[in-house]
Amino acid sequence: MANFDEQKINRLQENLTVLRKVAGWSAEDLAKMIGVTRQTIVNLEKAGNYQMTKIQYIAIRTVLEAEARENKNNTLGELVEILVDRADTPEQSKEEVRKTVTVATSNVSKRTGSAVAGRAAVDALIPLLSTLGPPVVGAAMFAVELLKDKKKIK
Predict the structure, then answer these.
(1) What is the model's pTM?
(2) DSSP 3-state assignment of 87?
(3) Among residues 40, 56, 57, 99, which is most buried (max CB within 10 A)?
(4) Closest to 9 in 3D by CA, of 145, 153, 135
(5) Residue 92 CB partners (closer than 8 Å, separation 6+)
(6) Model pLDDT, residue 24
(7) Dihedrals φ, ψ of 16, to 5°?
(8) DSSP single-letter state for residue 25
(9) Buried b (16+ CB within 10 A) or exposed e, 127-142
């Protein structure tokens, strides 16, 4: 069984495309923010044989949380908590979120770009998120635990 860290990393990787779209970023935008190539983001989103590392997890969580905080994108923050932080979110709810984002962004992004698609996704998600329950503690505590673990390893 995967440990707690790996489970959260896996959940972020499984939902990376949705979260990136809600943030209003292209794969290239996210890649530039965390210092990797666009192909790395594409590989992470496809999952398959490419596993997200703890460092990639921390970098992506940092930029997602900064986006939510600085741009007051509460929907993004709630979505991270629902899709990544909660181990008990039903798969049906996650699938409904993914479908809502896909439908909201599919036509918009082709015409106008990632930022407008992200706004469309946020607007489409607002009613759905209220049905999924209250948020939980975010990645800050998880990052602290990862750093503590790293010090123990040295």
Answers:
(1) 0.72
(2) coil
(3) 57
(4) 145
(5) none
(6) 87
(7) -60, -45
(8) -
(9) ebbeebeebeebbeeb
**Distance in angstroms (rounded) separating the CA atoms of residues 110 and 76:** 21
Give the burial class of 29: count Cβ atoms within 10 A of its Cβ; 0-12 exposed, 13-18 middle, 19 or more buried. Answer: middle
What is the per-residue pLDDT across 92-120, written as a single tens digit (0 to 9) for each? 888 888 887 777 777 665 555 666 666 66
In contact, 139 and 80? CB cutoff 8 Å: yes
Q: Which residues of 30-47 are buried (b: 16+ CB within 10 A; e: fewer)?
A: bbebeebeeebbebbbee
Q: Which residue has the tokens 């998600």?
A: 125
Side chain identity at residue 106, one-letter code: S
Residue the block writes with tokens 């489409």:
124
Distance between CA 17 and CA 102 in Å, rounded? 9
8-state DSSP, 26? -
For the stretch 26-83, pLDDT in tens is 999 999 999 999 999 999 999 778 999 999 999 999 999 999 889 888 888 888 988 8
Please, are residues 64 and 41 in contact by the beta-carbon 8 Å criterion? no
Alpha helices in the chain (DSSP H): 4-14, 16-23, 27-34, 38-46, 54-70, 74-80, 91-112, 114-129, 139-153
